[in-house]
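Interim report to the steering committee. The following record documents the input for Beta/gamma crystallin 'Greek key' domain-containing protein (170 residues).
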Amino acid sequence: MKERNFQGRSYECMSDCSDMHSYLSRCHSCRVENGCFMVYDRPNYMGNQYFFRRGEYADYMSMMAWNDCIRSCRMIPMYRGSYRMRIYERENFGGQMYEMMDDCDSIMDRYHMSNCMSCHVMDGHWLMYEQPHYRGRMMYLRPGEYRNFMNMGMSGMRFMSMRRIMDSWY
């Protein structure tokens, strides 16, 4: 929706949208009727990210302390299967490596790792958070290799916890 509290023009998005500006000059409220989405404050899936599941977000800007509105969104496909990800202490898969198959609320507590700079998602869809206990800014990861988080527009951000996006969230 263009305005807060579902006022103004609306646009229905049923898949990925790299630039909402072509449909709405701004988007300040959102209703997710089915599935899960990552929303971004810049076009082309860049900038701050936030995870939306089924529900209403009448004024998400104050909820997330965003200065801007939704500029792009990505639908997260439903996934039922095993989860597997390797996290690395340094970029380009360097340093200590740990394989994860479940949620981790603190890589420092579990692996004595002070930073995660790259990863390889083999199975499933994941959210990585900059603070322990699934707090702070986040990043959505689907299967693939992520060699350097800093080159992905995440400079200065350290990932300290990660969580699987489960089918029960839909």
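The chain has a mean pLDDT of 86. The committee is asked to note this result when reviewing the revised timeline.
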